[in-house]
Design goal:
By secondary structure, the chain is α/β, with parallel strands linked by helices. It is built from 15 helices and 16 strands. The structure holds zinc ion.
Length: about 375
């Protein structure tokens, strides 16, 4: 198997897992956050900077690379790692989420999904076989099965039909996989907020030999307590000897709460996207550095952060760059936000090691301000 999970210990206070995932491009400790590099680049960051901040695995998007530059060009370059000069691990999604979220004109049938290219309007078709073929060409370490991502909320009847189709598509993904010795493939458990459907989806998918399992269909607009409840009844249905990945989640509180519910891997565009609006994650909560009150603030974004941005640049300077639309400003906030989440995951791993993740959560939430009424979150 190209992807293996090594369990190190379980936190006695919370049940969170400390582990290590081994891939053909190195190993990473879990729980881990994966920065998102949609178009074979984590926007404004160089691979050298990602390495410096401690990123071990990044995510890239199949749908976007399929449209631009085309997976054949990436393959000709020697695969995605060579193409973008990143030697760490890469996870690619299946394209399903983008097809379902970017395109209003789509038609789902048993064979796959017909939709229009969001750039050119051209008619396209994505199926389990096509999604795997593209990912085989990209050469990611971890590929994702092609699934349907139903909107929230979806009726029980709709969700049941969707879960069953996703299970049939999962089998087709495994059958279409041409490089099983070099690339892992994860299945995606769906079922929305319905426990019985999550159970059905997990049963179907765990009967197939995937190298890991994702919990999909969360962080799609449902309240956080619904997400936590779904995780509580879903992660126990997944094998303990394989990695578990919560898709599309990246706010600091949800990372901690996901780890507590047995999740090992997370990804989200949130830290990089908000960075480009001048919004930063700090140990004292959300900081909108664009705001006028920082015009003469010569302190760092976060006095508790050891990143090179916080050691060398002031809020006033970063605010000025962002206000002036200077690329360097976006680079600084992006670097800090990614560093902040990678560092947070390191603290989570330390806390698991010492059986005190519950205490850590309390302290972090208190300092971050989540416990205050009207706390500003992401
Ligand atoms: Zn920093």
């Amino acid at each position: 198997m190209p992807i293996t999970y090594e369990h190190i210990k379980t936190c006695k206070q919370t049940g969170a897992r400390l582990g290590r995932v081994h891939t053909p491009h190195g190993s990473f400790d879990t729980p881990m956050f994966m920065p998102v590099g949609t178009l074979a680049t984590v926007k404004t960051m160089s691979p050298e900077e990602l390495e410096e901040m401690g990123a071990k695995i990044i995510l890239s998007n199949t749908y976007h690379l399929w449209l631009r530059p085309g997976e054949d060009i990436v393959e000709e370059a020697g695969g995605l790692h060579k193409f973008m000069n990143w030697d760490g691990a890469i996870l690619t999604d299946s394209g399903g989420f983008q097809v379902f979220s970017l395109s209003d004109l789509r038609d789902i049938e048993e064979q796959g999904v017909h939709f229009r290219n969001h750039i050119s309007g051209e008619k396209l078709f994505l199926s389990p076989e096509k999604a795997i073929q593209i990912q085989n060409s990209l050469g990611s370490d971890i590929m994702m099965a092609f699934d349907e991502c139903p909107p929230y909320p979806a009726s029980h009847d709709y969700m049941k039909a969707s879960v069953e189709r996703t299970s049939r598509w999962a089998e087709r993904c495994l059958a279409a996989h041409k490089r099983p010795e070099e690339q892992g493939l994860f299945g995606i458990v769906q079922g929305g907020e319905y426990e019985e459907l999550r159970r059905q989806s997990a049963r179907d998918l765990t009967s197939l030999d995937f190298s890991g399992y994702a919990v999909g269909g969360l962080s799609v607009g449902e309240p956080k307590d619904v997400m936590n409840k779904v995780l509580e009844f879903t992660t126990p249905l997944l094998p303990t000897n394989k990695p578990r990945y919560l898709m599309g989640v990246g706010s600091p509180d949800s990372l901690i709460d996901g780890a507590i519910r047995g999740i090992d891997m997370f990804d989200c565009v949130l830290p990089t996207r908000v960075a480009r609006n001048g919004t930063c994650m700090t140990s004292n909560g959300r900081l909108v550095v664009r705001n006028a009150k920082y015009a003469r603030d010569f302190g760092p974004l976060d006095e508790n952060c050891g990143c090179h941005v916080c050691r060398n640049y002031s809020r006033a300077y970063i605010r000025h760059l962002i206000k002036a639309n200077e690329t360097f400003g976006f680079r600084l906030t992006t670097y800090h936000n990614l560093y902040f989440l990678l560092e947070l995951m390191m603290q989570v791993r330390e806390a698991i090691k010492e059986d005190r993740l519950g205490d850590f959560r309390e302290e972090f939430f208190e300092q971050y301000g989540f416990n205050k009424p009207n706390a500003k979150n992401f």
